[in-house]
TrEMBL record:
It comes from Acidianus infernus. One of its GO terms (biological process) is gluconeogenesis. Pathway: Carbohydrate biosynthesis; gluconeogenesis. It comes from the Archaea. This is Phosphoenolpyruvate synthase. PANTHER family: PHOSPHOENOLPYRUVATE SYNTHASE.
Amino acid sequence: MIVEALLKDAILDITKLRKDMIELAGGKGANLGELVSFDIRVPPGFVITSKAYSYFIAYNNLESKIKSILEEKDSATASEEIKQLIISSQVPPDLENAILSSYDELAKKVGKEVLVAVRSSATAEDIENASFAGQQDTYLNVSRSELIQKVKEVWASLFNERAIEYRKTKGIDSTKVEMAVVVQKMVNSRSAGVMFTLHPATGDSRYIVIESSWGLGEAVVGGKVTPDEIVIEKSTLRIVEKRVSHKILKYVYNPQKKANEEVDLSNSPEADKISISDEEAIELAKLALKIEEHYKRPMDIEWAIDADLKFPDNVFIVQARPETFWSSKKATKEEKEEVTSVENRKVLVKGLAASPGIASGIARVILDVKEAGNFKKGDILVTRMTDPDWVPIMKIASAIVTDEGGITSHAAIVSRELGIPAIVGTKEATKVIKDGQEITVDATRGIVYEGKIVEEVEEQKPQVTQGISGISRDTLMSLYPITATKIYMNLGQPDIIDKYVDLPFDGIGLMRIEFIVSEWIKYHPLYLIKIGKPEEFVNKLADGVARVATAIYPRPVVVRFSDFKTNEYRRLIGGEEFEPEERNPMLGWRGVSRYVSPQYEPAFRLEVRAIRKVREEMGLKNVWVMFPFVRTEWELKKALKIMEEEGLQRSKDFKVWIMAEVPSVIVLADVFAKIIDGFSIGSNDLAQLTLGVDRDSEILGRMGYYDERDPAVLRSMKKLIRIAHKYGATVSICGQAPSVYPEVAEFLVRAGIDSISVNPDAVISTRRNVASIEQKIMLEKLRK
Ligand code: PEP
Ligand code: MG
């Protein structure tokens, strides 16, 4: 009787599931069923429900055995023993028959022997834990003869060591949790990718943008290729833009090796062939519209096209999540406007795409910031190069174009942080573009066009908070994958934290204080000391830091002491009196060398006092510090001593990091690791100093010399991680490299980095990329 009850609903076809059936089918299963409920094609399959799991446990009398192991053994041993117990137990014959006949039915439907994906689908109580513990086992390309074994392995993963530990701390009884298993036909993916029901670069909701590449979806999702891009107008289902990229690789399943493998396409004609037909793209767009209509919000969708089936049965949706990045306000505004295609537009200049996005507006060609008086909100700034004095103008600009500068120049860094499209290093923008001319800056591709292509957009910035207000931070975070590598965000301007506070980052990995000094304080600290107003510096700096630390509490904020160069300090009010004119400020009196010099030391003490004020008077213990441009051990020790004299000392809740950006720090990593808590790689300066290439040199930049992916730079980073870990220090990175190159993030995750700090616009993509890399690493380990 009991057995019959347990076997009932033990297996359910995906088509029978709905989103409220998480208890039975787990989150993944229930969501797939919901998609099917409104005719979305998902790979066919079935779910072995939580009932089946309970039946298996009851049949083998495992509950009491598991209970006593958990009571008697430590988590690591318990995990091993329970997993073994589950894997060696027998699946009740009637359940086994039911699973295999469901498989046979699926095979019959598909018309041949079918390979399936077997995935865990956590039930409500365990969902949070499942993502926390990486308990998301997926076995790909499973055949009939392996199926039962793989199902048991997925069940066993409920008892991963971390999962047991987690439940202990939350007071959840491990013998009471259950798990469902999704079994789905493997899509033999000819092409795959993602699509968005609004333009990911501009937030324009009139368009569907499809990104596509050959082979398995991993190439696009993990950022391994520049995908083909198709833009489809929703109202007419017409393709309005098509871009074919050079796709350097694809992932395919190799049946001999029983594993996915990377195929190099760089010399194959396939690389430049479009990976999706018009008919397939339009079919995808139709599905995207239906999904958006059902969920009533912009969606981010993964899809695949099967090589064995005929159109349209070959077009599958693999996953659909809400897209939360762009505000609906901006999208609605744009809906009323006309947009023309970029084809046939005159190209004015090209340069480096430094901060993605697109904007149209009136160009203001301004060579001297003092002449920026009539610059209006929404105008486009065209200038030679920016420096901190330009920031107030940059804040109201709808886009920025410069003659000079590379990807780590002031203009590039600030615009990325502000979320404004920017193109740098055009060489001749200030000559070619006329003041007052109407232009369009397509900073996703690095091209400036003549005329207006999109309407001027008031707010180009992602407005996460506004778009999804009312959702708790925990719920918000659960929309994104949990990663073992922490994802931090870089931020310098305290007042924009409110815009970004709901992004899924684990802390601020680099808070540059130069913005607070040049925009809030405005005076040189030594000048303020001279006129008897040092508190002005301390209070304003403390306020700026506290603003960010409060907004994201208890997530940490790593505040970097000042890293102005002499030419930048000179520009502060009263600065000329204290700052020499150096021939080469980039390699001059910057970073720690200032703090330990008799001239600047009193100002450094003010910086320390501000941090102490934030931590002790305001109680914001989530504020840590970082020293920039460290060159030698002796100077760092001296600076640490000054900090101690001011009452700040390394402790369990006060971490002290240093930037690893001068190669000497990496050469002597063991020496430094003993006196600090962590390193943060400054890949901008590290690439410059390792390769001997001025990071702002356009000549060398154009020749491809300035490249953080150079093997010498990568090897240095890897070496740092190895040595730092050996001596107990953590390693992060806050230079631009991982924000711009997903492959650098992959390299660092594989090398074991502890955290990655990226620009606001790269937080979500980096979190997804890192999650997929971590899962790949786990899969590779399992296969071995
Ligand atoms: C770096 O050098 O990588 C870095 C983050 O510091 P900055 O760009 O401020 O020199
Ligand atoms: Mg630096």
